[in-house]
């Protein structure tokens, strides 16, 4: 009978077990931000009354298995509104949450009399900073994967009904797949994946990133080489152990800063175990909402006092342009040397509508670092180029990406790629991209892979006293024409002087000997009108200033005939040398306020002739030292993206030759310049430039040093804005410019002004100089016995001074300066002025 009981017991147990397992409820899903679609990590997903639940992963996923579920499941996370959804008991199901952000509230935290318990932990963080900060390592390197997605969001109803949006009506069902039922619709227009090797050396401090694979899809993206340099991980490297973090070119105080107590309020909330590390959970928020500081949460390891995890947010109350919100989350792991290294990072930037009621821009970045190696420095030459790209980086096959991705592409990622591919091929989108490119770059490229760019359009029209109305049109070749040859040309005519001076023009040819060292040689021939004291645009100076100066301000004008030949190269990283030989003839275009003459010796008669025309031949060497600059290459051009703000030194020496290629004078001229942008934390940032110049031999005054004046209505940094063109002439001088951008530190604390997000800026400019007796004008008459043009020079003991007080960020793109000239108040010299300038800044 025992065996009967055993069999009966077995069947009873099996029946009960089957009943129990049949009632098991399995729930999986993902929690995302309803506004951005980004995963919400570490959120609590639970049944309210049973206290059964789990936390989301870094990627926002969760899973819960229970035999005793409730009717609804709730998600809760600081800074978001709680949300619940119904549950089907006894089933396996997927429940995704899209949750809306809310103001951070910490009202439930009670601080009892005595020391804030969070401060003790912070003191431990500060005491162990050196050993936990990755910057303390002598060297490190790792493999990095980054994924960037950029979308249009917050699309207004008015814009949805516009003609440009009509083609999108057919893809809104697909858009719902990536935004979720409760999420806000956004339209992706760019996505990229990048795999690179990143290396860091502490002494000397050098960084390099070698991009091994780059996959890009985007609207208006004809060539991915430039974009691939901007989407790597090295340009998104945020170290919270630093006192200040440079984000969107603004200095944000870190919650781990040594002086953090002056900027933040800290609250010890909880403790928990993360990846086997017991951690304290501390929340923080700015003491002043307009300050450039974060709101967020960090987890500090209890034994090492290292930062294990951090989530920070910047809200729309901060004094930033266009930024609705910015979100950074970071996970760190210890290395073999003790310092902690970020292994996962997610950054989300939500930009408000820039063009009125249209749409905003949402940028999302995910970074995963692996294969970390520390304290094993490579050879110095391996760090020479900051950002490099392997030849096949843009052509990796699917197998490469499947093998090297740390995570597989999600269903949403694949949907995004399909949508972008659809959008790229829409005719209206192609037209809109072409128009936008002309506006931004100033050039128009005919055809999909046009080989020339027509422009720049900003210089197409001008006006001056000699030419009358001036019309100019030009072109340059681009990378589709050749990666090694660059051809530029333009032609210009004036309505008043066409019969006298004919066509003005310029043509140049330049070729790369090595793109790696940026070694180029070139030649140019130019016949045109130039103004004395106005910057030459040969090396592509400020086109906006050049265009503004041409609109009726230029008076002291010369016809010039110029021939140049040059070579330039990066000798080593950060040290560029340019050599050029120039032959230049110029003669004045006479008008009422511009006449000059000088005595030129006649070797045949032993006397001096009175003449006006000048012929020079000079050789110039220019060296530029900027070891911490980071360059990106855009076709046949490169640009400094300016993330490292170290001093930049430029030295130029010119030698003039008599009786060589028509030159009339032997002379030597030397110039040295230092400029820098200095980040000053809560006090904003400062720009300064110091320059010294010396001419060693007597010359006619148009060849001497002309202090750069500015008679236009635009304020410019590189000129004396209260000085007339060609007002001061020297043969030795020292100039200094200083501008302090306070970034709203004072206006932020004034109730009415703080809503405008205006920013204060002050500046001062000074010039010391002199003119030797030998360089005083030697002729007292013009050949036609007319009075000569006059100019001034400085008293060596009295510097020229002008100061400015300005407000920037007016309407988010305009700056107004109120300027005063303090001395050298000659008749006709302005004393007070108001000038404006346009710029795009966050």
Describe the structure.
- By secondary structure, this protein is mainly β.
- Helices cover 13% and strands 43% of the residues.
- The strands form eight sheets. The protein has a 17-stranded antiparallel sheet that branches.
- α5 (172-179) packs antiparallel against α8 (411-424).
- The termini are far apart.
Task: Compile the SSE list and pairings.
Blueprint: H1 2-22, E1 25-33, E2 44-47, E3 52-55, E4 61-66, E5 72-76, E6 83-86, E7 92-94, E8 97-99, H2 117-127, H3 129-132, E9 139-153, H4 157-160, H5 172-179, E10 187-201, E11 206-218, H6 225-230, E12 244-247, E13 250-253, E14 264-274, E15 277-286, E16 295-301, E17 307-314, E18 323-334, E19 340-351, E20 360-374, E21 387-389, H7 398-404, H8 411-424, H9 427-441, E22 452-454, E23 461-464, E24 468-477, E25 485-494, H10 498-501, E26 504-514, E27 519-531, H11 543-550, E28 557-572, E29 575-588, E30 598-602, E31 607-611, E32 614-625, E33 631-634, E34 637-640, E35 648-656, E36 667-679, E37 685-695, E38 705-706, E39 729-730, E40 732-741, H12 751-754, E41 759-770, E42 800-810, E43 814-821, E44 832-838
Parallel strand pairs: 1-7, 1-8, 11-21
Antiparallel strand pairs: 1-4, 2-3, 2-5, 5-6, 9-10, 9-20, 10-11, 12-13, 14-15, 15-16, 16-17, 17-18, 18-19, 19-20, 22-24, 23-24, 24-25, 25-26, 26-27, 27-28, 28-29, 29-32, 30-31, 32-35, 33-34, 35-36, 36-37, 37-40, 38-39, 40-41, 41-42, 42-43, 43-44
Helix pairs in contact: 5-8
């Amino acid at each position: 009978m025992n065996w009967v009981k055993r069999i009966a017991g077995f069947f009873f147990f099996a029946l009960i077990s089957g009943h129990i397992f049949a009632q098991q409820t399995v729930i999986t899903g993902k929690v995302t931000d309803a506004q951005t679609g980004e995963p919400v990590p570490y959120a609590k997903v639970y049944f309210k009354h049973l206290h059964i639940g789990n936390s989301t992963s870094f990627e926002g996923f969760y899973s819960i298995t229970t035999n005793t579920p409730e009717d609804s499941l709730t998600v809760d996370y600081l800074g978001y509104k709680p949300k619940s959804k119904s549950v089907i008991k006894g089933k396996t199901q997927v429940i995704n949450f899209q949750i809306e952000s809310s103001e951070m509230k910490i009202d439930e935290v009670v601080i009892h009399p005595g020391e804030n318990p969070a401060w003790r932990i912070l003191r431990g963080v500060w005491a162990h900073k050196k050993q936990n900060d990755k910057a303390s390592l002598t060297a490190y390197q790792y493999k990095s994967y980054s994924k960037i997605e950029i979308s249009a969001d917050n699309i207004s109803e008015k814009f949805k009904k516009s003609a440009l949006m009509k083609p999108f009506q057919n893809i809104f069902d697909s858009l719902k797949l990536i935004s979720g039922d409760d999420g806000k619709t956004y339209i992706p227009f760019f996505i990229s994946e990048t795999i690179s090797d990143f290396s860091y050396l502490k002494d000397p401090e050098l960084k390099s990133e070698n991009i091994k694979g780059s996959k890009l899809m985007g609207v208006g993206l004809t060539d991915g080489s430039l974009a691939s340099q901007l989407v790597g991980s090295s340009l998104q490297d945020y170290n919270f152990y630093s006192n200040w973090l440079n984000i969107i070119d603004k200095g944000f105080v870190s919650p781990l800063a040594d002086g953090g107590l002056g900027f933040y309020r800290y609250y010890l909330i909880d403790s928990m175990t993360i990846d086997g590390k017991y951690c304290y959970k501390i929340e923080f928020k700015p003491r002043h909402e307009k300050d450039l500081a974060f709101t967020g949460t960090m987890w500090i390891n209890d034994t090492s006092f290292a930062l294990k995890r951090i989530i920070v947010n910047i809200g729309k109350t901060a004094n930033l342009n266009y930024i609705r919100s910015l979100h950074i989350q970071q996970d760190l792991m210890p290395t073999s040397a003790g310092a902690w290294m970020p292994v996962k990072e997610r950054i989300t930037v939500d930009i408000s509508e820039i063009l009125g009621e249209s749409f905003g821009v949402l940028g999302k970045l995910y970074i995963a670092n692996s294969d970390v190696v520390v304290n094993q420095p490579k050879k110095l030459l391996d760090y020479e180029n900051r950002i490099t790209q392997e030849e096949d980086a843009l052509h990796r096959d699917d197998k490469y990406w499947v093998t090297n991705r740390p995570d597989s592409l999600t269903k949403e990622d694949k949907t995004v790629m399909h949508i972008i591919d659809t959008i790229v091929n829409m005719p209206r989108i192609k037209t809109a991209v072409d128009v936008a490119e002309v506006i931004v770059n100033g050039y128009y490229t005919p055809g999909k892979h046009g080989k020339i760019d027509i422009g720049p359009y900003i210089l197409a029209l001008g006006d001056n006293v000699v030419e009358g109305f001036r019309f100019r049109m030009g072109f340059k070749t681009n990378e589709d024409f050749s990666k090694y040859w660059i051809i530029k040309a333009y032609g210009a005519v004036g309505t008043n002087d066409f019969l006298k001076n004919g066509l003005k023009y310029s043509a140049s040819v330049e070729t790369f000997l090595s793109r790696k060292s940026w070694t180029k040689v070139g030649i140019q021939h130019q016949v045109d009108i130039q103004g004395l004291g106005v910057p030459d645009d040969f090396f592509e100076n400020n086109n906006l200033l050049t265009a503004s100066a041409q609109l009726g301000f230029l008076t002291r004008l010369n016809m010039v005939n110029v021939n140049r030949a040059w070579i330039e190269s990066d000798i080593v990283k950060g040290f560029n040398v340019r050599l050029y030989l120039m032959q230049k003839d110029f003669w004045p275009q006479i008008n009422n306020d511009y006449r000059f003459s000088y005595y030129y010796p006649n070797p045949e008669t032993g006397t001096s002739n009175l003449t006006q025309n000048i012929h020079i031949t000079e050789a110039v060497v220019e060296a530029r030292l900027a070891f911490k600059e980071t360059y990106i290459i855009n076709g046949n051009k490169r640009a400094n993206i300016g993330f490292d703000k170290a001093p930049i030194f430029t030295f130029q020496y010119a030698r003039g030759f008599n009786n060589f290629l028509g030159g009339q004078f032997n002379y030597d001229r030397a110039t040295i310049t230092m400029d820098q942008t200095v980040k000053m934390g809560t006090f904003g940032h400062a720009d300064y430039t110091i320059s010294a110049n010396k001419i060693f031999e007597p010359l006619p005054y148009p060849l001497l040093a002309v202090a750069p004046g500015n008679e236009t209505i635009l304020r410019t940094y590189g000129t004396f804005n209260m000085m007339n063109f060609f007002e001061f002439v020297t043969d030795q001088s020292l100039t200094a410019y200083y501008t302090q951008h306070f970034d709203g530190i004072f206006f932020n604390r004034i109730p009415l002004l703080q809503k405008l997000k205006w920013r204060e800026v002050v500046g001062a400019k000074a010039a010391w100089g002199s003119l030797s007796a030998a360089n005083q004008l030697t002729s007292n008459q013009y050949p036609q016995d007319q009075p000569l043009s006059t100019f001034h020079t400085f008293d060596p003991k009295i510097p020229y001074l002008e100061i400015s007080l300005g407000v920037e960020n007016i309407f988010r793109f305009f700056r107004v300066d109120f300027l005063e000239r303090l001395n050298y108040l000659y008749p006709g010299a302005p004393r007070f002025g108001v000038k404006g300038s346009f710029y795009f800044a966050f």
